[in-house]
Amino acid sequence: MPKKEQMKGPSWSFCCCSQCLLLSAVVNIGKNLLKWRHESDLRSQEFTEESTYGARSTHCALASKKCTVIGGSGFLGQHMVERLLERGYSVNVFDIRQGFENERVQFHIGDLCSKTDLLPALQGVNIVFHCASPAPFSNNKELFYRVNYTGTRTVIQACKEAGVQKLVLTSSASVVFEGKDIKDGTEDLPYAHNPIDYYTETKILQEKEVLGSNDPANNFMTVAIRPHGIFGPRDPQLVPIMVETAKSGKMKIMIGNGKNLVDFTYVENVVHGHILAAEYLQKDSPLCGKAYHITNDEPIPFWTFISRVLVGLNYDAPKYKIPYLLAYYLALFVSFLVLVVSPLITIKPTFTPMRVALAGTYHYYSCERAKKDMGYKPVVSLDKAIEKTVQSYPQLRRASQ
Ligand SMILES: NC(=O)C1=CN([C@@H]2O[C@H](COP(=O)(O)OP(=O)(O)OC[C@H]3O[C@@H](n4cnc5c(N)ncnc54)[C@H](OP(=O)(O)O)[C@@H]3O)[C@@H](O)[C@H]2O)C=CC1
Ligand SMILES: CC(C)CCC[C@@H](C)[C@H]1CC[C@H]2C3=C(CC[C@]12C)[C@@]1(C)CCC(=O)C[C@@H]1CC3
Asked: What residues does 93 pair with on adjacent strands?
């Protein structure tokens, strides 16, 4: 709407004859209209330029910018919160712990499995981002089932009850991965019949629940984002595990021939994909009830990525190679031994069949659907992402010898 002063009546000039008055009024109205049109063009131009989120986001961005990030204290969640605040959203965080301090964020501490805990965090909120999960390497099956599956059902119920309109789930590209090569996999691939671990099994159940609950007729729309191999500053997992493995001297051998391409996705690109999805998710949009791969769109040989990060942190790149199948059966054998001795001692092996599969096979995914339906394009290239990540871990850098 034009501002008040632009709406004010025409200003009268010195001659008072009726023709002149009429002419002057018409001229002034014309001028004001032109001025308003120009300013409104500028405003929309400003929005489009400032926004990488496309024209269709205008409605959402102006109408409602209140959201809750479930899992907002975690690695991805914190990056989500930072970007959402920059984009002018008002942000609630719901998490089992408070991971950081920020006076602009309203924290709600609770367990997502409890609707009573959730409901206060969802009042007056239009969009919910659900990116909470137990850590993927946990062995606690019951916890995965409770949080990822039944907990997500509770999130859906609570969203509906609180009148939330959009639910954006952080799923995982691994929901279609069975430990066998996937090259440029699309979202049409079926869910894994034999998921690589229990974490993935419950991510499948979770995604099905969220997409199945999409109900635009009742003003409840859902979408699932499937990232893969998220990395970036403050990640407590990927880079620290790599460095830990290198420090213990176990990072000397490459699994397979070193050529297998994999997606590693910079956290800011993952965040960008989530926000785009939220802003493009409208009643009539193709996003409703669908899953979207979000990657860096630059698959890289697994061992090249590992080597670049390690060398960047002053560790040696792995040099030797072991055939993939040999490594896989060795890891199976190790798991068997660990199981046998488990009543006596608890061992957590680094070398697991799941990690061998992740390290030795091709698994990269097409993000064409996200490009087409929401204009997705990575905002940070892989080179820049690796550079930024390496720089962000000075404490993990090996001192020069
Ligand atoms: N990291 C990756 O490479 C990939 C991750 N994903 C998905 O992305 C999402 C975010 O992952 P990431 O940021 O790495 O994970 P984090 O573990 O860093 O963040 C998850 C957050 O959720 C919290 N949380 C766990 N259980 C509950 C609960 N019952 N109620 C409330 N909060 C809870 C965690 O608390 P606490 O730390 O105390 O457990 C943590 O703060 C997850 O859904 C994951 O499955 C998908 C693909 C790849
Ligand atoms: C010890 C080395 C041989 C491997 C070190 C790197 C790994 C820690 C990571 C390489 C691929 C990553 C990955 C995940 C976790 C960390 C890696 C195994 C996920 C399992 C995280 C959760 C998901 O949803 C899927 C990810 C696939 C890739």
From this structure: 69, 107
**Nearest CA-CA partner of 385 in 238, 256, 257, 251:** 238
112 lines ligand 1 (CB under 6 A): yes
% pLDDT > 70, the chain: 84
pLDDT at 45 over 90: no
Residue 217: CB partners within 8 Å, gap ≥ 6? none
- The predicted model scores a pTM of 0.86
The CB of 74 under 6 Å from ligand 2? The reply is no
Across 90-94, 234-238, 344-348, least confident range: 344-348
In contact, 140 and 147? CB cutoff 8 Å: no
Which residue out of 358, 361, 362, 389 has the highest number of ligand 2 atoms within 8 Å of its CB and is therefore the one to mutate?
358
ipTM given for this complex = 0.95
Mean pLDDT across the chain: 86
Alpha-carbon torsion 263, 265, 269, 270, what sign? positive
Whether 199 is catalytic? yes
Counted residue by residue, the chain has a size of 401
**8 Å CB contact between 223 and 292:** yes
Tokens of 17: 């004859």
Classify 178 as helix, strand or coil.
coil
Beta-bridge partners for 322: 255
C-beta of residue 91 within 8 angstroms of C-beta of residue 85? yes
Asked whether 113 lines ligand 1 (CB < 6 A), one says yes
* 266 SS3 class: strand
The predicted-structure confidence for 259-280, as pLDDT tens digits, reads as follows 999 999 999 999 999 999 999 9
Count CA atoms within 13 Å of residue 47 on its CB side.
15
pLDDT (0 to 100) of residue 169 = 98
CA 224 to CA 175: how far, in whole Å?
11
* 286 class by beta-carbon count within 10 Å (0-12 exposed, 13-18 middle, 19+ buried): middle
